[in-house]
From TrEMBL:
Gene source species: Microcella alkaliphila
This protein's UniProt keywords: FAD, Flavoprotein, Oxidoreductase, Transit peptide
Residue span(s) of domain Acyl-CoA dehydrogenase/oxidase C-terminal: 244-390
Domain Acyl-CoA dehydrogenase/oxidase N-terminal: 26-136
Pathway(s) where this gene product acts: Amino-acid metabolism; tryptophan metabolism; Amino-acid metabolism; lysine degradation
GO molecular function, one term: fatty-acyl-CoA binding
Any one Pfam family match given in the protein's UniProt record, by short name: Acyl-CoA_dh_N
Record-linked PANTHER family: GLUTARYL-COA DEHYDROGENASE, MITOCHONDRIAL
Catalytic activity: glutaryl-CoA + oxidized [electron-transfer flavoprotein] + 2 H(+) = (2E)-butenoyl-CoA + reduced [electron-transfer flavoprotein] + CO2
The protein, known as: glutaryl-CoA dehydrogenase (ETF)
UniProt xrefs under Gene3D superfamilies: Acyl-CoA dehydrogenase/oxidase, N-terminal domain, Butyryl-CoA Dehydrogenase, subunit A, domain 2, Butyryl-CoA Dehydrogenase, subunit A, domain 3
Known cofactor(s): FAD
Presence of keyword Transit peptide: yes
E.C. number: 1.3.8.6
Length: 397
């Protein structure tokens, strides 16, 4: 029996792939990841600190994301990317390794607005919007959350009433991503027939989007308050395939799946920033990477990122087989975002005082992840989704 001798891995090689993830991916999957990573390194990273500091989201990123092929990535059809769930997950991780706000742009456009139209719209609605949205030439947003109806969307008060053949929309939404730069809004509203979805042109009279500016998190992105003051919509604004909360929840589950991967991108980037700093920073006549406490932190973070990434890959394989269940998405979102917050905070401690500056990513990631932890379902909501699946007893009320 011939034994193969393997060349020992360098520290950089171990850090880049501590658990051998590359061997678990196909050539196509690695190609998607590497293409998005190269885009992030050349087009996004040089500007991240400036965009975050100045609370800027350049609208021209949308066409760039469209050319990259990450808008509506899991949707199939003419002019749509039609990629796998794992490929989308890998792309989401690379985008959030840059900034959570930038991954959120892709999620709002693709997983929320485009998924709503693709899943519940008519052929005419799909033809009118989806190709342009995939290219980033049409920007969409998704109006579900309200000032007093976040975790309980069934209590929304936005209302659409019939007036002849038209609909008239009144009410308000809050924390709506991309709304002030969007061309259309997918808005969910109460009607006499239950909760329904509508495609609303943002230039319609009575539609107002006001950016929320006093943010300590997600600064390189746009979230808005929306108001609808008797916005008149034609009959064909209705998304006919969606009735009740199952419509928006279908879109939310697509977005939550992306978060499972994206959070690990932010965690991985935080870990790598801390590792590089620890190797360069000298204290007491040696790199701080040689200190036991620092190595223990790096090891613990590596284990956390590795296990979270394996969970994301497993859920992606299930999704590609059509087997992924809502409670499994909740397990992934709850675990991976909670893990990413802890990793980013631990990484910041290795950076010492320098870690509070915009020169290093962990504190920015930690602040962004506080938003990611809240949106698309808080920790408490996902814990109750899991608890309900385990017991058969819903505990939301």
């Amino acid at each position: 029996m011939v034994r193969m001798t393997r060349t020992p891995l360098t520290p950089d090689e171990v850090a880049a792939d501590p658990i051998g993830l590359d061997a678990m991916l196909s050539d196509d999957e690695r190609a998607v990841r590497d293409r998005v990573r190269a885009f992030v390194d050349t087009e996004l990273r040089p500007h991240l600190a400036e965009w975050y500091e100045n609370a800027v989201l350049p609208r021209e990123l949308l066409p760039a994301f469209g050319e990259l092929g990450v808008l509506g990535m899991m949707l199939a059809g003419d002019g749509l990317p039609g990629r796998s769930a794992v490929e989308y997950g890998l792309a989401a991780a690379e985008l959030e390794a840059a900034d959570s706000g930038l991954r959120t742009v892709v999620s709002v456009q693709g997983s929320l607005a485009m998924t709503a139209i693709h899943t519940f719209g008519t052929d005419d609605q799909k033809a009118q919007h989806l190709t342009g949205m995939a290219a980033g030439h049409i920007v969409g947003c998704f109006g579900l959350t309200e000032p007093n109806a976040g975790s309980d969307p069934g209590s929304m008060t936005t209302y659409a009433r019939r007036d002849g053949d038209d609909w008239v929309l009144t009410g308000a939404k809050r924390w709506i991503g991309l709304a002030s730069i969007a061309d259309i809004a997918v808005v969910w509203a109460q009607t006499d027939d239950g909760i329904r979805g509508f495609i609303v042109p943002t230039d319609a009279p009575g539609f107002t989007a006001t950016p929320i500016t006093a943010k300590l998190s997600m600064r390189a992105s746009v979230q808005c308050d929306l108001t609808f003051d008797d916005v008149r919509l034609p009959a064909d604004a209705l998304l006919p395939g969606a009735r009740g909360l199952s419509g928006p929840f279908t879109c939310l589950n697509s977005a939550r799946y992306g978060i499972v991967w994206g959070a690990m991108g932010a965690a991985r980037d935080s870990l790598e920033a801390a590792r590089r700093y620890a190797l360069d920073r000298v204290a007491f006549e040696r790199p701080i990477a040689a200190a036991q406490l620092t190595q223990a932190k790096l090891a613990d973070m590596t284990v956390q990122v590795s296990t979270g990434t394996l969970l994301a890959l497993h859920l992606g394989r299930l999704k590609d087989q059509g087997l992924l269940q809502p409670h499994q998405i909740s397990i992934g979102k709850l675990n991976n975002v909670r893990t990413a917050v802890a990793v980013a905070q631990s990484a910041r401690t290795i950076l010492g005082g320098n870690g509070i500056t915009g020169d290093y990513s962990p504190m920015r990631h930690a602040q962004n992840l506080e938003s990611v932890r809240t949106y698309e379902g808080t920790d408490e909501v996902h814990a109750l989704v899991i608890g309900s699946a385990l017991t058969g007893l819903p505990a939301f009320r």
